[in-house]
Amino acid sequence: MSNHYDVLGVGRDATGEEIKKAYRKLARKFHPDVNDGEDAQERFKSVTHAYEVLSDPQKRRVYDTTGNENGTDNGAGNFSGQGFAFQDIFETFFGGGGQQGPAPRTRRGQDALITVRIDLRDAVFGANKKIEVETAVTCPTCEGSCCRPGTSPTTCDICHGSGQVQRPMRSILGQVMTVATCGSCQGYGTMITDPCNECIGEGRIRSRRSLTIKIPAGVGTGTRIQLTSQGEAGPAGGPAGDLYVEIKVNNDPAFLREGDDLHATLSVPMTAAALGTELTLDTFDGEQPISIKPGTQAGEIINLRGLGVTHLRGYGRGDLKVHVHVETPSKIDAAQEELLKQLAALRGEQFTAGKLVTSGGMFARLRDKLGNL
């Protein structure tokens, strides 16, 4: 019995990609279309069989453990080490249990997950994003048949297309007939004797493709969007899995999101806070008028309704909350200093006097909030 690793020329610690690369190289070398040597066809079959076992993680594990060249564990559940399985009895006398008929080559492809970054503006209003995905697609040459164009799978001459073989086995009940997966065709009932050169008999290839996805308004970091049948194409022309797009929202330099509300900080001069003024604020909805009332204090919040993030489920939008920051001048000239002293005198304010706020004000609100925790 030939060693599958030696047949492919790889070590026992070879990765799946190294095994595939070695198989493609040997398959091209011994393919009957390019090599008319006497033993080319047999070498090609041997290489293909070795790849079928080592490319399947479960079969490879069984092969490494038991040495079974087909990668199947026919000894599982044996009784008294005699190769006798109770399941075989039920299958033999009652026809129950295992798979009936050949196994299909066609299987559904795996789901895929990618991450897409968007700006906060896109989360507020939604957007269409064009992305590129590298995934498995149906082979354009064989269209998923796994065979070279113009050819088709041949019926297995061992199981005659059933995908299963019967063999006698001695048991405590005497000799019984057991049913096992055909090791020649791996249970498919057919053999790919002339595989497609492009996909090497898998029916799919790796490719990069572009698609446009619709980002709904209101999404946030961690939101996942399911795109049905946009994942990996299945082997042998099988249906594609689903593609999941996970959203990550980039930080915005001006706005902070909290739920469906947006927060922004507006700095105003001390004089404007004292006297009041009309300003404009650049928002995602364009410039919006802001009214600073006379005597506005630092930390006050101006609420702009309906200018926040669109509700992901339901209707309407959150609010934009503008936090007022009063700028106190850090450097003043002599004339400005004199004017401020005159203002302080007119207001009866003393530079050496101060008092703790006992009701109202920012610190009182903070005290109340902490007291409720």
Provide a concise account of the structure shown.
By secondary structure, the chain is an alpha+beta fold.
Q: Helical element count?
A: 9
Radius of gyration, Cα only, in angstroms? 37 Å
Share in β-strands = 25-35%
**CATH-defined topology of the largest domain:** HSP40/DNAj peptide-binding domain
CATH class of the largest domain: Mainly Beta
Would you identify the CATH architecture of the largest domain?
Answer: Sandwich
* CATH H-level superfamily of the largest domain: Urease metallochaperone UreE, N-terminal domain
Verbal overview:
Helix content is 24%, strand content 27%. The chain has 373 residues and is α+β, with helices and mostly antiparallel strands. The strands form 6 sheets. It has a 4-stranded mixed sheet with strand order 10-11-15-14. Strands 1-9-8 form a 3-stranded mixed sheet. Strand 12 (277-283) and strand 13 form a beta hairpin. The longest helix has 15 residues, at 16-30.
Topology:
Layout: H1 4-8, H2 16-30, H3 40-54, H4 57-66, H5 86-94, E1 112-118, H6 120-125, E2 127-138, E3 154-155, E4 164-171, E5 174-181, E6 190-191, E7 204-215, E8 224-227, E9 243-249, E10 256-258, E11 261-269, H7 270-275, E12 277-283, E13 286-292, E14 301-304, E15 320-327, H8 334-347, H9 361-371
Parallel strand pairs: 1-9, 11-15
Antiparallel strand pairs: 2-7, 3-6, 4-5, 8-9, 10-11, 12-13, 14-15
Helix pairs in contact: 2-3
Descriptive key words:
3 domains, single chain, Helix Hairpins, three-stranded mixed β-sheet, HSP40/DNAj peptide-binding domain, 15 strands, 373 residues, 24% helix, alpha+beta
